[in-house]
Design brief:
The structure holds two protein chains of two kinds.
Chain A: H1 3-13, H2 15-54, E1 59-63, H3 71-78, E2 83-94, E3 110-115, H4 120-123, E4 128-131, E5 141-145, H5 146-152, E6 159-163, E7 168-177, E8 190-194, H6 195-202, E9 209-214, H7 220-230, E10 236-239, H8 241-250, H9 253-284, H10 286-294, H11 299-336, E11 338-339, E12 342-343, H12 351-377, H13 381-386, H14 391-416, H15 422-458, H16 460-472, H17 474-512, E13 517-525, H18 531-538, E14 542-555, E15 558-564, H19 567-572, E16 578-580, H20 583-592, E17 595-599, H21 600-606, E18 613-616, E19 624-632, E20 644-646, H22 648-653, E21 659-666, H23 673-684, E22 688-691, H24 692-735, H25 737-745, H26 750-786, H27 793-796, H28 799-816, H29 818-825, H30 829-834
Chain B: E1 3-16, E2 19-32, E3 36-40, H1 47-54, E4 62-67, E5 70-71, H2 77-87, E6 88-91, H3 103-107, H4 109-113, H5 121-133, H6 149-161, E7 167-171, H7 179-196, E8 199-204, H8 207-210, E9 215-220, E10 223-229, H9 239-247
Parallel strand pairs in B: 3-8, 3-9, 6-7, 7-8
Antiparallel strand pairs in B: 1-2, 1-4, 4-5, 9-10
Helix pairs in contact in B: 5-6, 6-7
The chains are: A alpha+beta, B alpha/beta.
């Protein structure tokens, strides 16, 4: 019989353990595959988003602010040498429908994209699933996205009514575009109309962006330089498709790095399981190995025999893992939907992710098996037939192996992980986890004693036995605890980071909004529209209406978020925490003009200090000087980060047409009905009534989804650790068969034996949970600090997650004890006491 | 004298592949309180199986065992375990000590299992007493790997005696020991019998060990072939027993 067949039979003789080990590998591979597939899905979504956004254009000129690019700028672009074709477009958000009833919730807005029906198809493919494309520059026709058609029940031929600056206009749907349509961040609700009609509807002759196709054979860089030289009258952003893709990818980098980190941890736990399984097999088969050696098997053959078993487990586990990974990836993509600025369009299950996942699974299994296989090969026939293995050498080898596996998984992780800032963070986290795990043997007896206290109170003897069993082979217990600890540590760490992010976002909102609720608009509301006066008239108990607008400015050549605010309102409401500058005079200064308050992050990045002057380009061509009068901890969030704050006087110079939102403060003692009145009147002005709690809730939901997913992935590592606990406890039972027999002969009941194994698992679980919580809090703190945050010990500990992790650790471990405990309690005494 | 242990028509069969092995074939016996009985026979004769069934470690296929009047077959596993813990003691051929526990802890095991505190009161006195009986005073806190083979087996004897069991079962207790060390163990057993009235059932294939008993039951083919009354003696001279065995052609 070949050694491979013998290996196969050996695995079949231990069906349950082999299945558990295979499942452990499968779960590790599943998380890895799901991570790779999701990352591939993100890449493909980024590519498809870029394709949708830019099409075949070589360059894009995008406008700053609501005023957009003027006809002069568009003309200048068109006349730039090397430019062959331009596709200008205007983008605005509106509400569809003939009327919005007062008091009713506003429907989700749509994004209207005005395009040149002739030029646009030269640079962009518009994929129709029904109807036809736009042809005439002035036709009252529209294309809509498939998602909008489905959500609003619209079909080809249906009328759609839009509210522009003048009367409502009604267009006819002539075509339906596939999927979410050609825009990112529009939530799939898109209406495409001819540019001229869009400009007429919105009373604007500007455009939002101009996509450029350069003449064949012309260098894009040369055209880009020529554009920079010509476009001097208003601020703009010039980008290539690569720039846009890089920006989108950056917004997903943290997600990808965290997924890769968790996959690496799950793989480590899987490798640990294989190592322990094969170690057990070596101990169990020591006589068989001795017989094989006595019968003439060489060391190499014995090593091959053991490695063959690992190969079978690796192949089985990896293939099963890819199957599970497909399901997991589909679940992840469906659950998360949006990562950063990228909407995942569909679960991407790339076949090329299966190959590395299977190879890593098999390779990891083989690597984990190397040490036990070599140990088996070194067994002397005589030693095997009469004695036990030299445990101390095995223990040392296990700890060396632990370091080895960490290093291998790190290298694999570095190769497989996406590039970006998250990699350093992941490496630091990984190193902390390694150091933490290596410390376990040193503190094992103390931790076991501590974790044993609750059990000692009611089951003193069982606790003593269980603790003795744990410290009998510290390296095995270390590996078991290590896998459980890092799984739980990741759950706690991610919980801590999630809580920190939620708290920071909540505090942010409360810190910067000068009111108790917000009325938001999808279009700028100009001061001369009289909306504020109408609101005050309708709801007299409003104490203050503070207009806010967010926009972009070009600062030192980079797009920077800015916000127009009323300094006096912020002062009256006690908002903003200043780290530099005088609060009262700074807020007064921005209202007076020529001054700005900058967030600490921006001040750090640009090295700004109070008193410095920033020069910002304006539409008029005359740059605006803004003196830095204060630096604040947190500022109003813009589209990409925190905004520098200016007064409305300067905002108007910077092209801000009106407010995007109004922060409302009611007078003290305002009747409860005032809020309902405001909600009703706001709707008639197409203003969305949003409480600060609703904003916090939305932030909580968004964070909850992402961190919930990470926690679920980390829980897979805990599940793998549980399989390891089954193996370790079974091994402990097998090694103690005779001892259990003696105890039974001396009067220990089956239930007591059962309890001693379950208590052992409970101590392991509690010890793992305690270590996991401590390590998790450290790792979580590090992740927050590395991401630029600050740790708040008083509020930063995620008590709920800590409690859940401790319960999870104990419950998982004690459940894992079911089989070994049953095995131990049912040992026949007579055979047990004779067991060698 | 009071009968402490009785067995009636015990049989015990084991499946072995497609066939069954009959280890016991209708054994009946009785042991009186304070008696030292030896079950003697060659390997495979069924003597160890008989001892395990008598001690409640194994259940007979048919037949009945009563210990102090209680039918072991009618007891649940937990009841049988408690009876074993409280009323019997076992000494095995392998010393079967718990390697992680020291001498006192190993001896105290039956008390610890029962939830008692062996570090104080009467239990501590009893532990001290049996350790003295087996001559291990001074080595109370040695771990098994720090003791010689004979000392380890004496710990096992002390553990078996510490509960003051009604019956002590010893299965080849000298099988792994040299002659001198084995004699020490047998002396300790005999001492507990003579000085403390301990009832002992000893399994052995060695006539010199069996000669310590008051009565020797010769087991062969799963049955009691012969009972040899030696009576309580001051010496452990094996010659009369060996001569009697020779007479019987055993």
């Amino acid at each position: 019989m070949s050694l491979t067949r013998l290996a196969w039979r050996s695995l079949r003789a231990r069906t349950l353990r082999s299945l558990l080990s295979g499942l452990g590998v499968a779960l590790g591979v599943a998380v890895l595959f799901a991570g790779l597939a999701t990352n591939a899905g993100i890449d493909s979504s980024v590519n498809s988003t870029v394709r949708d956004l830019v099409g075949r254009a070589d360059l894009r000129v995008a406008a700053f602010g609501e005023h957009g690019l003027t006809p002069e700028t568009v003309r200048a672009i068109k006349e730039t040498p090397g430019v062959e074709v331009i596709a200008p477009a205007l983008q605005r958000r509106i509400y569809l429908g003939p009327d919005i009833d007062a008091g009713q919730a506003l429907p989700p807005p749509v994004t209207v994209l005005g395009i040149d029906p002739v030029a646009e198809p030269q640079l962009h493919d518009l994929h129709l699933i029904a109807g036809s494309l736009l042809r005439e520059p002035t036709e009252p026709s529209a294309l809509i996205s498939e998602q909008l058609a489905n959500e609003d029940g619209l079909t080809v031929g249906a009328p759609i009514t839009m509210q522009g600056t003048g009367d409502r206009v009604t267009y006819r749907v002539i075509g339906i575009l596939a999927g979410e349509g050609p825009l990112n961040g529009a939530f799939g609700r898109i209406v495409v109309v001819p540019l001229q009609t869009a400009q007429a509807v919105f009373g604007d002759d500007a455009v939002t962006r101009v996509d450029i196709g350069v003449t064949a054979g012309t260098d894009v860089g040369t055209v880009s330089d020529a554009l920079v030289a010509r476009l001097v009258t208003q601020p703009y952003v010039l980008s290539t498709p690569q720039d846009i893709a890089a920006t989108l990818r950056n917004s997903t980098a943290d997600f990808q790095a965290t997924t890769a980190l968790i996959a690496a941890i799950a793989l480590f736990a899987g490798a640990f399981l294989i190592f322990n399984t094969l170690s057990m097999t070596v101990v169990e088969q020591v006589r068989d190995v001795g017989l094989l050696r006595a019968a003439g098997a060489t060391r190499r053959q014995v090593t091959r025999f053991m490695l063959s078993q690992a190969l079978v487990l690796g192949v089985f586990g990896s293939l099963l893992g890819v199957g599970l990974g497909v399901l997991l990836a589909a679940g992840m993509v469906a659950y998360v939907r949006t990562i950063g600025s990228v909407t995942l369009q569909r679960p991407a299950i790339p076949p090329d992710a299966a190959v590395p996942a299977v190879l890593v699974g098999i390779g990891g299994t083989r690597a984990a098996a190397l040490e036990p296989a070599r140990r088996a090969g070194r067994i002397q026939p005589v030693e095997a037939l009469k004695a036990r293995l030299d445990l101390p050498s095995a223990r040392r080898a296990r700890l060396r192996w632990l370091v080895g596996v960490f290093v291998i998984v790190t290298i694999v992780g570095l190769i497989a992980a996406p590039r970006g800032a998250g990699v350093v963070q992941a490496l630091v986290v990984y190193a902390v986890l390694l150091v933490g795990t290596l410390c376990i043997p040193l503190i094992l007896p103390a931790v076991a004693r501590l974790a044993g206290i609750p059990f000692r109170v009611i089951l003193r003897f069982e606790e003593r036995l269980a603790r003795s069993a744990m410290v009998r082979d510290p390296s095995r217990s270390t590996l078991t605890l290590g896998a459980l600890t890092i799984g739980l540590a990741m759950i706690v760490a991610l919980g801590g980071v999630g809580q920190h992010a939620r708290a920071a976002a909540g505090a942010w909102i409360a810190d910067v909004v000068p009111g108790e609720l917000i009325l938001s608009s999808i279009r700028p509301v100009a001061p001369d529209e009289g909306v504020e006066a109408d609101l005050r008239a309708a709801v007299p108990s409003i104490a203050r209406i503070s207009p806010i607008a967010t926009f972009d400015v070009a600062l030192e050549g980079a797009r920077t978020d800015a916000a127009a605010v009323v300094g006096a309102d912020l002062a009256a409401d006690g908002r903003l925490r200043f780290t530099a500058g005088d609060r009262a005079s700074a807020l007064a200064a921005i209202d007076a003009g020529g001054a700005t308050i900058v967030p600490a992050g921006l001040a750090d990045r640009l090295g700004l200090a109070v008193g410095q002057t920033l020069t910002v380009p304006t539409d008029s061509g005359t740059p605006l000087d803004l003196r830095v009068v204060g630096i604040v901890e947190r500022s109003i969030p813009g589209s990409g980060g925190e905004a520098m704050l200016v007064g409305w006087k300067d905002a108007t110079s910077l092209g801000v047409a009106g407010a995007d939102a109004f922060a409302i403060r009611f007078a003290s003692g305002a009747p409860a009905s005032a809020r309902d009145e405001l909600r009703a009147v706001a709707t008639t002005y197409a203003l969305d009534y949003v409480t600060l709690d609703r904003i916090k809730g939305a932030i909580d939901d968004a964070f909850g989804r992402i961190f919930g997913l990470f926690d679920a992935l980390a829980a897979v590592a805990v599940l793998i650790a549980a399989l390891g606990i089954v193996n370790t406890l079974t091994m402990n039972v097998i090694e103690r068969v005779r001892e259990i027999g003696i105890l039974r002969a001396a009067g220990m009941t089956r239930r007591q034996v059962w309890r001693s194994v379950v208590v052992e698992a409970g101590i392991l679980g509690l010890a793992g949970a305690l270590l996991g919580v401590i390590l998790g809090l450290i790792v979580g703190g590090l992740m927050v600090v590395l991401a630029g945050g600050r740790i708040d010990v008083a509020t930063g500990i995620p008590w709920q997650i800590v409690g859940l992790s401790i319960m999870l650790g104990i419950a998982v471990a004690m459940l894992a004890a079911a089989y070994p405990a049953r095995l131990a309690s049912r040992l026949p005494i007579v055979r047990a006491v004779r067991f060698e | 004298m009071t009968v402490i242990l009785e067995a009636f028509h015990l049989t015990r069969t084991y499946p072995l592949g497609a066939t069954t092995v009959e280890a016991l074939r209708g054994v009946s016996l009785s042991v009186e309180a304070g008696e030292f009985v030896a079950l003697m026979g060659p390997s495979g004769s069924g003597k160890s199986t008989l001892l395990q069934v008598l001690g409640g470690l194994d259940r007979p296929t048919s037949g009945e065992v009563t210990l102090e009047g209680k039918d072991l077959g009618s007891l649940s596993d937990d009841e049988a375990t408690r009876l074993r813990r409280d009323r019997t003691g076992f000494v095995f051929q392998s010393f079967n000590l718990i390697p992680l526990l020291d001498v006192v802890e190993n001896v105290a095991l039956p008390f610890t299992i029962a939830g008692g505190d062996p570090t104080r009161g009467e239990l501590a006195d009893r532990i001290r007493d049996v350790i003295e009986l087996v001559d291990l005073t001074g080595k109370e806190h040695h771990k098994p790997d720090q003791l010689s083979a004979g000392e380890q087996q004496r710990v096992a004897v002390a553990r078996a005696l510490v509960t003051r069991p009604a019956l002590l079962f010893a299965d080849e207790p000298t099988g792994n020991l040299d002659y001198t060390t084995g004699t020490e163990i047998l002396d300790a057993l005999k001492r507990s019998c003579v000085e403390r009235g301990q009832t002992i059932v000893l399994v052995t294939h060695d006539a010199k060990a069996a000669a310590y008993a008051d009565r020797v039951m010769v087991v062969g083919d799963g049955q009691i072939r012969e009972t040899i009354e030696l009576g309580r003696r001051d010496t452990h001279e094996a010659t009369p027993l060996i001569a009697r065995l020779a007479q019987l052609g055993l």
